[in-house]
Amino acid sequence: QLLTDFLFSVAGNSKAFAVILRTTEKSVWANEFECDLEHRALLREPANLLILNTSRSDTAQYRCEVAAIDDQKPFDEILISLAVRVKPVMPRCSVPEAVTVGSSPELRCIENEGFPQSLYQWFKNSEELPEDPKTSSKFYNSTYTMNTETGSLKFRSVKKEDAGEYYCQARNEAGWSKCSPQPMEVYDLDIVGIFLKVLGGVAAFIFVIVGICQIQKSGYCSCKDHRETKDIFATSPPLSYKIKDEETSASAVKALGADF
């Protein structure tokens, strides 16, 4: 009969809290280990295997073979599944610094080192948030939705009372870890400020349009004046002709005077 002890371990345990297999006196382990266990595993009589300083990579199935030539059943084996549990590291938390009333901010928390996969819990001002706010009189008016598997905390419509310091805790069977608290401020919607910004934008737009119109108008007038000047010179007789006509008239006057 094959018996087993300790089907799980905690990673990095200095007490070598790992797989120990107990069998009958007729059972034996192989005399060689795989490379990754060569300096971390010990064989102990009668047929015990001890793995030191377990890590997540040691999670696997292990086989113990029993050879008893003189027995009625000369060979037997057993498979043992080892699950090494790894404590979560500090999760990465994302909390917006400032939001406006009525917006829909989302707080995020993630951790990838723990095994089994971590579950997440959010805290506000060091007080644990219930997964469903409607189950608590204190958070009944909150509109958040918490996903303990993904670490998301999303508000449908944030309120002034939702302001505070938030942090997240990642937990699994091996332990837990948390991020540092981060503040989230909630501000009222500044309608006056928005109106002034819109008004300023409209005024700037009108100023640009008026400037463009003035530039185009000035260019049109200059062209018009230039064309009118050209028309005057085109319709006026040449100056040389005027002078010649005046000389002819003067000569005629002198001739008439001589006759008299």
Descriptive overview:
With 260 residues, the protein is an alpha+beta fold. It has three domains: 3-85, Immunoglobulins (Immunoglobulin-like), CATH 2.60.40.10; 92-187, Immunoglobulins (Immunoglobulin-like, Sandwich); 191-251. Helices cover 25% and strands 32% of the residues. The chain has helices spanning 191-235, 239-259, and strands at residues 3-5, 8-10, 20-22, 41-44, 48-51, 60-67, 75-85, 92-94, 98-100, 106-110, 119-124, 127-128, 144-147, 152-155, 164-172, 175-178, 182-187. The strands form five sheets. Strands 9, 11, 12, 15, 16 and 17 form a six-stranded mixed sheet that branches. A four-stranded antiparallel sheet has the order 8-10-14-13, with no helix packed on it. The longest helix has 45 residues, at 191-235. The radius of gyration is 47 Å and the shape is elongated. The termini are far apart.
Keywords:
260 residues, alpha+beta, Immunoglobulin-like, 3 domains, six-stranded mixed β-sheet, 17 strands, 32% strand, elongated, disordered N terminus
Summarize it:
One of its GO terms (cellular component) is plasma membrane. The protein is α+β, with helices and mostly antiparallel strands and 260 residues long.
